[in-house]
Amino acid sequence: TPGSFSRVWVSGISHYDGRLYVTGYSQNMASLAVDSGEELFNHYLYDFAQQQEYNAGEKPGGSGSVIQFSSQSLHPNGRSLLLSAIGGEKLVYGLGSGGRPVCVWEGSKEAAATGFLLAGNSICSGTDNAVTVSGLNGTERWHSALQSAPADIVLSDLGLLVTRNQARNLWVHDLQSGELRWALADAADITAMAVDDANDLLYLCYFNERLDALNVADGSLAWQYDYSYLLEDKERQELVAAANAKLGLSERNGYDRATLDNVSTVIRPDGIILAFDYGFMLCLDNTGKLRWQREDLDPISSVMGFVNGIITQHYWYAAEIAPQGLYVRASALPLVRRPAWPAITASWDRISEMTAEQLALRQMDVDEQREFQRQQRLAGPDEPLRVMYTNLAVLDPLDGSQLDSMPIEGWVRTGMCPARDKVVFEDSSYQFCWYANNWQGGNRRVSAYNWLVPGGES
């Protein structure tokens, strides 16, 4: 459905009982029917602390704060949706039978929420230096001071709330009482965290390229796995040199190391799958034994696990002409090899031509650059060039072999949401206007890929 969301960024997609709840970065929420994409409602969520709503297409009136939503968490009962915004706003909307969202709780705006979770009868959220658990009506149940802002919050089936920050610390509290059960301090930097409820394990990936499996009840070490062998020292040096050359960066302001720190996890009943942006994937059983390994995949930005497979988002973009700093989990380091995707092949001549011109432009002095850009403006704009490409691949969780794939001429921004027999995602088909160095044109769509076993999220 191109629909109303062709005008805004999508900040989150959730599903319950055949309905998708899609929240826009620019303050609107829509509900779509999973089977058809039919729009059931689309309302503005406008004026923080005033609970005013407007139909999509109407100009919001009155005065109030502009909320820019960044993420969301749907309660398992499907009746409440927690929204978090970049300005610190935290709101819970009730989703009644009539479908119109009603704000039932507004959290503190004092600091941005840096981690949040809606589960059971609790709203869990982090701020600059604390984690807070409240009831669904917003009444604070307990509050625990931390050393710095939480980066992630997860909940174990044992009723333990696990909070980590962006440095070297992790805390495990009892969800109901707030009692601190155990903590980790002065450990190597944590790059990923996941709970394995089938085996009561907490998986932690570290910056020094190892995985620790801890017993979630007490924090004791069950086993470790070192995956640093996936990249040899020579390969790391070559990747750094190639990326800096592509981007025209020097040793002073360019990449200085290639590290396996962008890691995505899929928890399965029999263990864990680790996926790295360099195109590596490992499957470990719940004792730390390697079951299978892939080192020949295209660059990976995200994965999601299901009963009948692992959906892997592979990416490629023209690093030399794409603006840097826009892509979460999409490093230029793995882009040494160009995938043989039809959309890339079809655009390769233009990509090569514009890359050469862009690199030449960087060697000019300021006056030469201005004159070059003036001549380009006089010549008029070229047809916008697409520079971001995605391929969704389905892998067999038993051996890692590919079962299916689907190229997307754009970028899957907000991840993939399971919904009945479908995977739903935002297909952002952006195009790049190279001479003006900004994005223009293209479509933003919410798309559904009909592939899943019903209810088959892992």
Notes on the structure:
11% of the residues lie in helices and 46% in strands. The chain is built from three helices and 32 strands. The strands form eight sheets. It has a five-stranded antiparallel β-sheet, with no helix packed on it. With 458 residues, the protein is mainly beta.
Biggest beta sheet attributes: 5 strands, antiparallel
Strand order of the largest sheet: 1-2-3-4-5
Straight-line N-to-C gap: 27 Å
Strand runs, count: 32
> What fraction of residues sit in β-strands?
over 45%
Residue ranges: pLDDT <50 for 5 or more in a row? 1-7, 47-64, 431-442
Number of helices: 3
Mean pLDDT: 80
SSE diagram, text form:
Blueprint: E1 10-16, E2 19-24, E3 28-33, E4 39-46, E5 52-55, E6 69-74, E7 80-85, E8 90-95, E9 101-106, E10 115-119, E11 122-126, E12 130-135, E13 140-145, E14 150-155, E15 160-165, E16 170-174, E17 180-184, E18 190-196, E19 201-206, E20 210-215, E21 221-226, H1 233-247, E22 263-268, E23 271-276, E24 280-285, E25 290-294, E26 300-306, E27 309-317, H2 342-362, H3 366-379, E28 388-395, E29 402-408, E30 411-419, E31 422-433, E32 438-450
Antiparallel strand pairs: 1-2, 2-3, 3-4, 4-5, 6-7, 7-8, 8-9, 10-11, 11-12, 12-13, 14-15, 15-16, 16-17, 18-19, 19-20, 20-21, 22-23, 23-24, 24-25, 26-27, 27-28, 28-29, 30-31, 31-32
